[in-house]
Amino acid sequence: MFDDSKIGINHSPVWARLHQHQRATRFMQMRELFQTDAQRFQRFSLQLDGLLLDYSKNRITERTLELLIDLAYEADLPGWMQRMRRGERINVSERRSVLHTALRLPQSASLLLDGQDVVPEVHAVLQRMRVFCDKVRGGQWLGYTGQPIRDVVNLGIGGSDLGPLVVKEALSAYAHPELNVHFVSNVDGQHIARTLAQLDPATTLFVVASKSFTTPETLLNAEAAKAWFLQAGSQGDIARHFVAVSTNAPAVQAFGIDTEHMFGFWDWVGGRYSVWSAIGLPVMLAVGYDSFRQFLDGAHAMDEHFFHAPLAQNMPVLLALIGIWYNTFYQAHTHAIMPYDHGLRRLPAHIQQLDMESNGKRVGRFGAPLDFDTGPVIWGEEGANSQHAFFQLLHQGTRLVPCDFIVPMNSHYGLEQQHRVLVANCFAQSEALMRGKSEAEVMAELPDMPGEELDMLLPQKLFPGNQPSNTIALDKVTPHTLGMLLALYEHKVFVQGVIWGINSFDQWGVEYGKQLARRILPELDAAAALPVTHDSSTRGLIEYFRKIHG
Ligand code: F6P
């Protein structure tokens, strides 16, 4: 379908030049780069609509970026960007278009897919969501006892959970004061049991969110919710208390939810890219239509920047290329994400799914094996808490861990001094990681220490520095800046996938475990036959479970 010849990008001359460049510059110290260039921050930072990206604390020079941009051209990045934007079926293994960007287009736009304009459909669903959310938020959507809804429970997993959960948490300053939105994802019964224990069925609304409407975790939770509800309400009341978000209308109906209470989306929206679709319903319930629209507009602003800015001034492209610089040419295997914002504390989990489910692939988009490393392990935790947990390793461990710091300049919550302390900590960490602490600096702090003790302490108090990071500063966490931030990471992941030659939009790797779980489930029953095909470990574990269950 598309040109396959770029798959072996590691055999391209520019790949070799990047290796050479890495060898030639690997002893370069960022501290010195800052000392010799007073304009480094200005040179290596970008601003867009209340979002600042500072990428100056990286082991890069102008030449590094030139070579990385050559690599992007070698992979035909501009061509792939246009293919995605136009709705070509770039998700080749599932023969699907990839059009989450269409979900954030304004009503006046148009985008033809197979001759059909998708924008009116997108806005029609948004309007249905708006009418529904206005009723629930306004207290006109009544439960079976005639009381308004007070609690919403989203039942979904993966992309049908993490995106809306992060956005709802991040925008809590905009939330309806009397409507609580909860998220239940895990099939571990304690998740739903503990959530329902706080709720009243008469005032609770369930959103069953599943693109496929076949995901066992979600369907089991939905059945448990229905059973809990039916202890109080009747079958005829289900319509007031259960709505669905899905692409699978027959399955929604089979579950017992009228499709009149279903909000649809399309196969060209990947699960981990779906918060912008009806999967965002719990967000709209929490913050209302206007804020949700601003969230979409923020993402659209980032899309416009991504599709139109030159590669050398393009935030997602630069983040992606710098990520590849470390991942591929420095063999850094992980990438840490630290939001200095309590509302964004689950952002690392969302980006982890986005990145690792998209780019955790070992073959190219047409199936050819890749003989280089692809997506990194993404991890992270909110600051300042993480400083007191794993930052020791970042500062003095043996590994290179590129970091992203994300921090708002203003808080919604007053306590101005606390916010300043938070920001100061964030800036201090990236500075400390970059500059390190030299022998002379340590000695100056230990002026009168006797020789032997000094010999022992000095190496322990040294910080090698030269640890790279990006800082993304938001003026404030608003729906607009949050939309920009999430779209920034989506496009970053896409760019990396294009350069490595992989399809970032399928996820075959999650299927096998599901298949085996279906097989093992009946075998947990002591009366069932236990096939000899299991290895001794799996067999031993199954037998242990059976024994415990008598
Ligand atoms: O884990 C695989 C996956 O398909 C994710 O990609 C997806 O977000 C999640 O399961 C949930 O899928 P669904 O929305 O179809 O229930």
Automatic annotation (TrEMBL):
Top-level taxon: Bacteria
Active-site residues, Swiss-Prot/TrEMBL: 357, 388, 514
Intracellular or extracellular location(s): Cytoplasm
Top EC class, one word: isomerase
Alphabetized GO MF terms: carbohydrate derivative binding; glucose-6-phosphate isomerase activity; monosaccharide binding
Entries under PROSITE patterns matching the protein: P_GLUCOSE_ISOMERASE_1 (PS00765), P_GLUCOSE_ISOMERASE_2 (PS00174), P_GLUCOSE_ISOMERASE_3 (PS51463)
Statement: the UniProt record of this protein carries the keyword Cytoplasm: yes
GO annotation, biological process: gluconeogenesis; glucose 6-phosphate metabolic process; glycolytic process
Coiled-coil regions listed in the entry: none
InterPro entries associated with the record: G6P_Isomerase, G6P_Isomerase_C, Phosphoglucose_isomerase_CS, SIS_dom_sf, SIS_PGI_1, SIS_PGI_2
Reaction(s) the record says it catalyses: alpha-D-glucose 6-phosphate = beta-D-fructose 6-phosphate
Pathway(s) where this gene product acts: Carbohydrate biosynthesis; gluconeogenesis; Carbohydrate degradation; glycolysis; D-glyceraldehyde 3-phosphate and glycerone phosphate from D-glucose: step 2/4
Function, as annotated: Catalyzes the reversible isomerization of glucose-6-phosphate to fructose-6-phosphate.
PANTHER family: GLUCOSE-6-PHOSPHATE ISOMERASE (PTHR11469:SF1)
Family: Belongs to the GPI family.
Annotated protein name in UniProt: Glucose-6-phosphate isomerase
Species the sequence originates in: Aquitalea palustris
Record gene name: pgi
